[in-house]
């Protein structure tokens, strides 16, 4: 019982890895370099692509509606995920054993916050789509103030969920309760985390099934009367398909990881959860790579706006280069002219000296 009363806040993470019997889960130096290079390329794409999505929503007035504001917030969560993956890649392997407890909490907190933000955003978007489709409208009647409050609520919940282990729900003072995948997270927290996220998955799938059934019945009724109504109301159906595609990719990429976390929380010793750790991380990165591609592929207006932004950036850099080249040319011309003037003056002086002599 004395072991439960002793806390190990000052111990490095290697102490907790050894406590969880993690000895062979270290990256080889060559593997680590390859992972860091490939992962950095993917993360740069994630950060830049989601930044373009946010800029597209901000610059195009056609996107100034609740759905697109929430979609930009979802892109912001993927933007944070890209930063979290970069930080994770350069603080893994042997370095992870040298981390302090607070450093490990910060590393995992970034990942948990980005995941919570993505999941909560998807839930809010599902509710917004449900309200708009049940009224058979392209966009809901949410005001900008309410959308701002929803976005603030999403990030408040996400930050809290990311900080829960560091606030006390951990096993630093009770080593027998530590999990395997996260050596300072208690197994009860992993059970709560995985079950709550899986329940949210089911809720969102249920909402979109309800929307799909409603849209199908409404379309059959409208088809019986006129085809113009369907043409006029195609946009909300497209928006639903976009969000359903994003949700489907999210569920496919994150459900295996949540199931493995649940197995670890239930202390399944025969499951060998460490074997799936790297593959599950790859799926998580893949999901953040897919989302901006889905936005631009499913929405022609979004893709057009992104292309225009890219052209503006390229033209801006070209203008800067041309202006620099012009400045260099002008400075070169000025120096050449000054040299010619100096040479002419020197020749005049030399001729006058010769004549006087």
Automatic annotation (TrEMBL):
<keyword id="KW-1133">Transmembrane helix</keyword>
<feature type="transmembrane region" description="Helical">
    <location>
        <begin position="189"/>
        <end position="209"/>
    </location>
</feature>
<feature type="transmembrane region" description="Helical">
    <location>
        <begin position="239"/>
        <end position="259"/>
    </location>
</feature>
<comment type="similarity">
    <text>Belongs to the G-protein coupled receptor 1 family.</text>
</comment>
<keyword id="KW-0472">Membrane</keyword>
<protein>
    <submittedName>
        <fullName>Lysophosphatidic acid receptor 3</fullName>
    </submittedName>
</protein>
<keyword id="KW-0807">Transducer</keyword>
<dbReference type="InterPro" id="IPR005385">
    <property type="entry name" value="LPA_rcpt_EDG7"/>
</dbReference>
<keyword id="KW-0297">G-protein coupled receptor</keyword>
<feature type="transmembrane region" description="Helical">
    <location>
        <begin position="279"/>
        <end position="297"/>
    </location>
</feature>
<dbReference type="GO" id="GO:0005886">
    <property type="term" value="C:plasma membrane"/>
</dbReference>
<feature type="transmembrane region" description="Helical">
    <location>
        <begin position="147"/>
        <end position="169"/>
    </location>
</feature>
<dbReference type="InterPro" id="IPR004065">
    <property type="entry name" value="LPA_rcpt"/>
</dbReference>
<feature type="transmembrane region" description="Helical">
    <location>
        <begin position="110"/>
        <end position="127"/>
    </location>
</feature>
<dbReference type="GO" id="GO:0070915">
    <property type="term" value="F:lysophosphatidic acid receptor activity"/>
</dbReference>
<keyword id="KW-0325">Glycoprotein</keyword>
<dbReference type="InterPro" id="IPR000276">
    <property type="entry name" value="GPCR_Rhodpsn"/>
</dbReference>
<keyword id="KW-0812">Transmembrane</keyword>
<feature type="domain" description="G-protein coupled receptors family 1 profile">
    <location>
        <begin position="49"/>
        <end position="295"/>
    </location>
</feature>
<feature type="transmembrane region" description="Helical">
    <location>
        <begin position="33"/>
        <end position="55"/>
    </location>
</feature>
<dbReference type="InterPro" id="IPR017452">
    <property type="entry name" value="GPCR_Rhodpsn_7TM"/>
</dbReference>
<feature type="compositionally biased region" description="Polar residues">
    <location>
        <begin position="323"/>
        <end position="341"/>
    </location>
</feature>
<keyword id="KW-0675">Receptor</keyword>
<keyword id="KW-1003">Cell membrane</keyword>
<dbReference type="Pfam" id="PF00001">
    <property type="entry name" value="7tm_1"/>
</dbReference>
<feature type="transmembrane region" description="Helical">
    <location>
        <begin position="67"/>
        <end position="90"/>
    </location>
</feature>
<feature type="region of interest" description="Disordered">
    <location>
        <begin position="323"/>
        <end position="357"/>
    </location>
</feature>
């Amino acid at each position: 019982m004395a072991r439960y009363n002793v806390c190990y806040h000052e111990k490095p993470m290697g102490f907790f890895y050894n406590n969880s019997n993690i000895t062979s889960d270290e990256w080889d130096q060559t593997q680590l370099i390859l992972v860091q290079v490939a992962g950095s390329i993917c993360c740069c794409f994630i950060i830049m692509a989601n930044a373009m999505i946010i800029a597209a929503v901000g610059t195009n007035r056609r996107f100034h509606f609740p759905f697109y504001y929430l979609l930009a917030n979802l892109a912001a969560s993927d933007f944070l995920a890209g930063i979290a993956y970069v930080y994770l890649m350069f603080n893994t392997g042997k370095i992870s054993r040298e981390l302090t407890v607070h450093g490990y909490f910060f590393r995992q907190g970034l990942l948990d916050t980005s995941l919570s933000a993505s999941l909560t955003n998807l839930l809010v978007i599902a509710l917004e789509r449900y309200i708009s489709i049940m009224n058979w409208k392209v966009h809901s009647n949410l005001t900008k103030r309410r959308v701002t409050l929803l976005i603030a609520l999403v990030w408040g919940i996400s930050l809290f969920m990311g900080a829960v282990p560091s606030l006390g729900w951990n096993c630093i003072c009770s080593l027998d309760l530590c999990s395997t995948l996260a050596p300072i997270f208690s197994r009860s927290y992993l059970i709560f985390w995985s079950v709550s996220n899986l329940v949210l998955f089911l809720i969102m799938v249920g909402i979109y099934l309800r929307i799909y059934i409603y849209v199908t019945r409404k379309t059959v009724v409208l088809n019986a009367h006129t085809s113009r109504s369907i043409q006029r109301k195609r946009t909300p159906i497209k928006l639903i398909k976009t969000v359903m595609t994003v949700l489907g990719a999210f569920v496919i990429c994150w459900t295996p990881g949540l199931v493995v976390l649940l197995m670890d929380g239930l202390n399944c010793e025969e499951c060998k959860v460490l074997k799936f750790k790297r593959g599950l991380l790859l799926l998580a990165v893949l999901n953040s790579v897919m989302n901006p591609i889905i936005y631009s592929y499913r929405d022609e207006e979004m893709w057009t706006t992104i292309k225009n932004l890219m052209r503006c950036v390229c033209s801006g850099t070209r203008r800067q280069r041309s202006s620099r080249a012009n400045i260099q040319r002008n400075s070169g011309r000025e120096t050449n002219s000054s040299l010619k003037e100096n040479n002419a003056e020197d020749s005049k002086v030399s001729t006058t000296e010769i004549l006087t002599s």
